[in-house]
Each structure stands twice: as C-alpha cells, then as structure tokens.
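Case study.
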Amino acid sequence: MNARERIQELADQVVVLRDAYYRGSPLVADAEYDAIEDELRGLVEAHPDLAPDPNPLDQVGAPAVLHAPVRHSRPMLSLEKATKPEQVAAFFDRFPGQPVVVMPKLDGLSLALVYEDGRLARAVTRGDGTTGDDVTPLVRALVDGVPERVDAPGRVEARGEAVMLRSTFAAYNTAHPDKPLINPRNAAAGTLRAKDPATVAERRLQFFAFDLDTSADAAAADLEQGLRALGFAVADMRHCEDAAAAQEVISGIEARRNELDYDLDGAVLRLANRDAFAAAGTRSNSPRGALAFKFAAEEKTTLLLDVVWDVGKTGKIAPVAHLEPVFVGGTTVTRATLANQEVIRARGIRIGDTVLIRRAGDVIPFVAGVLDESKRTGAEREIVPPAACPSCGQGLIEQGNSRELFCTNVACPAQAVRRLIHWASRAAADIEAVGPVWIERLAEAGLLEHPSDFYRLTKEQLLEFDRIGETSATRMIDSIVASRAVGLRRALIGLAIPMASEGTATRLCRAGFGSLEEVADADEERLVAVEDIGPKVAASLTEHLGRLRPELERLRQYGVSLDVRDEDLPPVVASDAPLAGKTVVVTGAISDPRSGEKVPRPTFQRLCEKAGATTATSVSANTDYLVTGADVGASKLTKAEKLGVEVVDQGVIWQQLIEAGIA
Ligand SMILES: NC(=O)c1ccc[n+]([C@@H]2O[C@H](COP(=O)([O-])OP(=O)(O)OC[C@H]3O[C@@H](n4cnc5c(N)ncnc54)[C@H](O)[C@@H]3O)[C@@H](O)[C@H]2O)c1
Ligand SMILES: [Zn+2]
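After joint prediction, the assembly is written out as follows.
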C-alpha cells in the first residue's frame, strides 16, 4: 500500500471510530485509537501534499445529532499530546519566563458555561468543536460545581470538564448491580444525553473549570485565581516555574492517580496567565498555549479466553475472566473480575469476545464491556454459571438482585484455603512470610486446614518441600510465631464471619468485649446493644463463633492471643480536643481540602476520633453532628433533619483537625 492509500485508509478509520466513540459505544480502546491518529499525523507531516480533504485531524469530536445546537463563541478544541519529558521541556522553551499551571487531564466531557450579567445563561457541550448542544436544564439539575450566579458583569464564559466522581460511579453500580455503568466517562456523557433529568437523578456529576473568558476589568490575570474568585471548583492546579518542576508535578499526579476521586488520563500544562494563553493563539485543532501529557492507558482490549468460577472465603462463587495477556494500567493483566451473573448478562459478554479491560481506581482489573459485536464469528460461547460448587460439588444457592451464587458447605476445601489465606493476610494475623501459593501447597499436603494448624507447623515439615530451604523455613516459622499476638479485633476479622465487617470487629472491642470467647458467649441482647450490630449480624456471630469454638480452643492452646489489645481501643485524647465527647456520623465522599485528594472514610473517622469524637455509621438521636462530604444521599439528611441532628460540612471539621494539628 502506498502512502496515499494508507492515509486515506487511516482517515476513514478515524472518522468511523470517532463516530462510534462519541455515540457511546467505542469499537477500540483509546490507546488503539490514538495510535491510528498518531500514524496518520506522522504520514501527513511527511507528505503534506497527500493530506486528506477534509482532514479529520483538523476536527474535534464528531458530527453529532444536536437537539438544541448553539455555536461556540470560539471553537472548543482538542489538545496537543505529549508522552516524553523532552516535549514538556520544549513547551517551556516556547514560552520563556511564562508561568505554567499543571493540572490533571480529567476524563469526562467538556462543557462551556456562559453567564450573562451574573446569571447562568447556558451550558453547552463541545459537539464538533464549533457547535454544541444546549444542555442547560440537565446541567442545572445534575451537575455540582456550576454556580447559578457569578459576581461579574457582562459576559463570562467558563469552560471545564464534567466528570462522574468515582465514588458516585461506585455507589451507583452497587445500587444497580443489574444495570452497571461501564465507566465514569461514558456515564457522564450518557447522563448529559438524557431527555429528562429525573430519570438520571442518581448520576450526579461534578464540574471542574480550566478555562475562563471575561471582559471584567477586575478579573485576575491568573487563571486559577480568576476561576476561584468566581466560585468555580478547579482540580488541583499547580504553578510551575520550569520544566523540571512541571515534570515532578506530572509524575506526582500519575503516582496518585488511583487514589483520586476522578478518572484522569494525563496531565495538562497550560500558560497560567489568561492573556498570554489567548495571545499564543491556536493551531487547526488545538491551542498553542497548552499541552496534554498522556499517561499509560488504563483501558485496553483483549480476548476473553475463558471464564472460571472461583470460590471465595465466605463461599461466594465469582466469575473470573481468563484473558489473553494485555499490558494495562502499568502491569500485564491475565485475569479480571466479572462481578456476577447479572453483570455478565447486562454487558452481553461471551467467551471468545474481544472485551475492554479497565484497571483504574481499584486494583482489581475488570471487564468493562464487549467491543464491536459485529466482529463476532459465531464461535463465541455463552458463559454458563455452574450448577454445583467447582470445589466440593455441593449445590449452590442464589442470593439478591445480582444473583450471586454461594456454596454453603462449611467443609468446602476451596473455602478452607481461602479462609487460611485470609487468616494470614495483613488485615488479620499478618503471616507475611507464608504467601498464598505456599498456603495452597501446605493445604494440599494436608498440613493446613484450620488457622490453628499454622501454629502446629514445624520447620522439619516445611523442609520436606523441595523449594523450601533452611532460611525460608526459619523465616516462615518466625513469621507464624510473631502472628500469635493477633488479638481480638484482627482475629475476628481473620475468621471471616459472614456479615461481620472490619467495622463490626472494631466496634465490639470498643464496646468492652475483652476476648473472642466473650463475643461467642454473649447473648443477642448484649450484641445488638453494640452500635451497628443488628439481629442478623448478631445471629451470624453467634452461629459461626459457636461452630468455631473448638478452633478457638486450639488457637488458645497454641498460644494465640484472642484478647483485646491496646491498638484495638480508641486513641487516648486530651479533654480539650475539638470534638471531645461528640458523636459524629460521616457520610459522602471525603477529600482533604488542601490537596483535593480523596480520603477513605475510615481514615477520616480515625482523625475525628483522635479529636475526641465517637464515630457511628447511622444517624440516631445520640448523634451530635452529621458530617457531610460530596454526593450525600438524601436519606441521611432527611433523617438528621427529623431528629434535629446538626449537619456540618466536612470543611468545618477539616479546619478544626488542621488547627489542632491532628490532620
Ligand atoms: N476509543 C475510540 O475509538 C476513540 C475515538 C475517538 C476518540 N477517543 C478518545 O477521546 C479523546 C479524544 O480527544 P479529545 O479531542 O476529545 O480530547 P483530547 O484528549 O484531545 O483532550 C481535549 C479535551 O481534554 C479535556 N480536558 C480534561 N482536562 C482538561 C484540562 N485540565 N485542561 C484542558 N482540557 C482538559 C477537555 O474536555 C478537552 O476537550 C482521546 O482520549 C481519544 O483516545 C477514542
Ligand atoms: Zn464448595
């Protein structure tokens, strides 16, 4: 094929792929699409005379069906891409002495917000860059961070990205396991295509601004200051003096990308001064004053080779996808989770399909969906859930809307291995030197069946194994011996009692239980008196600890501590601590106001406890404050209102924690 033909072929592919992508059903992963664009760009640069006409590289988005078309005041462009530090250095060289801001490149959809005389007049999507769709009612109803009024005269236009926060995405998918959203970006785009906001009310979005146009004399020359002064949220902008500083910020964003509450696919560098950015001008489809540094893809396509049903520690039978190895999110992935039968059905996945794998936010990669069903050959196979436990052969029971399968055989060998691995895990006994592979071998050899069996193992037994030498045997035994100090809280976690979470274990300790046996002996009345323990959890504790009583005796016999430890109890706090004596309930997504980083709720609760508070998970008449983060569900607020509980924004608590030197 000559260059002319190849250029035409690539240009045609770009048009087709973009069209499918912007309709919400991509045919390939982003990285594959980008490679096609890159090849086309390279060929056109080498043969300018062969440039296709029209050249899709000069366009952004896709010609979409617009319901209420609005022409943009100036085009909404794409961004020039970079992947190497030299390109960052070259950007700084182009603008000597100019301050640059570096910020995350959010993966959502761009919006232009137009204000006239201080009021929001319209919100418009990017569309094909020249003309977008007026989505004002949807944005008003569903997007946080869009002020209704700004304190500036005349015309103000703020542009930015509307994203679905990962916490919202996860909460939505937990609530709708039968109709999960594929990824936050698709979810955001789909939300703003809805006909009626009421039908998508649970899919709240968040707007982060990154561009500002105003003629107001008083507006700050600095982009971030200008945006903040008008009340817009920005996603962590850092000012950088030189390329080295920028590179450090970029690396920092990449390192933290899984901890943040939004998906991002890179970092954007941009001239910090608004006038300098405007003066730099534009190329055919990108501004000269900005550069996008792209990170390794977190989404790739690969072949689904098979589905294996895996038995978990509580007997849950979960489908695991076996994949043709694919490099995604920085590692080679060969397995991914498929969640449950309903997800498989909702996503229409078959063995032999080319599927989209995502590895973002959470560590476990998952199958996000099937790509291009038209590529099917007919040889694909349906994924059939097993009728019996693949380990012990006992019949399964089905539970809940998402139809999760369970093996209820307490003697199931696969469950036993999972429970042993769980006992040795960090959250429980933390037997660091004996990893899952060895646990499986030792169980196969008949040396391990119950957690207490770890403490009977001898060095001689370990040395029988081919690949265990003197040094590793000693390390394994030392690690087992050290784990005997496990204590009440972590032992309870380690026993993997259905319905008893880590929180349950913590609260039992704090409610005054001194040992695991004391929990096993307690009657229902005493158990349900503990915060957050209801009759079902109480019954599960009683049933399973009752069954495990011989095991508790064996653990004791081998010197394993099942008594409460200091670390299981709340931290000692000074009487003048800011939240002393207060009972607080934390709800919504919590983030540190200084960095914008998401903070896991338990971490924040621990900080509140250090400040003297008692934390609870449901609002009651005893609650002093309901501390609210982002995306708070209405039910907690209504309950708080009814009971007269004070609702406090997380910002107020953060300030107290910071002032007291606790956070
Ligand atoms: N899989 C496919 O088939 C397929 C097809 C077409 C496009 N795509 C993907 O869609 C994207 C196409 O490029 P594009 O032109 O829409 O976007 P882009 O990658 O060129 O970046 C421009 C966009 O980035 C967004 N953005 C996020 N944070 C920003 C910030 N801080 N500052 C400025 N802009 C910010 C804006 O919405 C802006 O419109 C690429 O990621 C591409 O891989 C995929
Ligand atoms: Zn079984």
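Observations recorded in class. The chain has a mean pLDDT of 90. The longest helix spans residues 3-22. We will return to this complex in the next lecture.
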